[in-house]
Amino acid sequence: MQPFDSKEFRRALGAFPTGVTVITTCNSTGDAFGVTANSFSSVSLDPPLILWSQSTTSSSYPAFRDCDRFVVNILADHQVQISNQFAKSGADKFRDVPVVQGLGGVPVIQDCAAHLECVKVAAYPGGDHVVYLGRVEKIFRSSHRSLAFGDGRYLRTFAHDLGEVGGGQASINGLAALEMQRIATAALPEICESIGQRTLGLAVWGNQGATIVHWEPSSQPVSPHLQAGVVVSLTQSATGRAFAAFMPPDLIRAAISEELRAREQSGQQDNGAFAQHMAEARCHGLARAVGSVPSPRHKVTVNAFSAPVYDSRGVMIFALSTTCAAERLDPDWEGAVPTRLRQAAAQLSQRFGYRDAGGGGQGHPGR
Question: Can you give the pTM of this predicted structure?
């Protein structure tokens, strides 16, 4: 057998995403205990049985060892703080956590995705853990989406089956488009981390033009002046240039002409700069904006890149954009950040059914 250590084992297990639960109980004097656990699984429907496991070194192990009942609180995706709070030892884990008393007085955490109130029917030794078997007596399911965990980080869950979205149909209906936007938004935290916690935004083509619909929170935001719903310039911003370069020409030509004409009337001559930006974007597969003076919105000089995301028809549906203070974002087209951004956009496109064998497509005008 090939040897491996506990870190390698943990990393391999991280490839299997799980839900996140907080298991709660109380002792004979009514003291409440709780612990975060993702070692939860269903066992049987008839009778309704579940299991979870706990380390024997956990400070709450004696309480769960001796208890008659426990509750499996399946956390919702807005309850990361609760997960973190119950994962720590010591302190008051129930501080500021809304609970009600369930069967046998066991605390039930409110606003979860679901909870299962159980009678403990067995406990089995399992290495440095004990496996508890519980019979479910009462259940509740809310409309919240579940919190997930995998590869050492929290995740958001979403439906993988896109139905007709990936089927190459002539048009995308409104519900499918909303589902695609939800999936793209759910992917942003991991993409943000992959590009070094730089400000990351998602944009769509709206009735007013290129519109930012979501900013992913970053540990190092470009500025505090980030707003969703902002319509950005087609000729000056990286996001706008991405739509200008990769949207089907018939859908965007008039808007580009109008903006260029307005800029010329205000005394801002283009002198072929926009055409050059378009040629560069189509050559590199994403758009760029390099700052020379402080941005009126962000109050600092910024650089930015924006990559197109396509649907199953090869039509651009989103722009995946990052913007950052110029000193933190190299403008090199082949730098680490634009390379990862382009890869992330390609992966999202594939998820939406886009297949581009030749490197071009309906969303690549001019190729």
Answer: 0.58
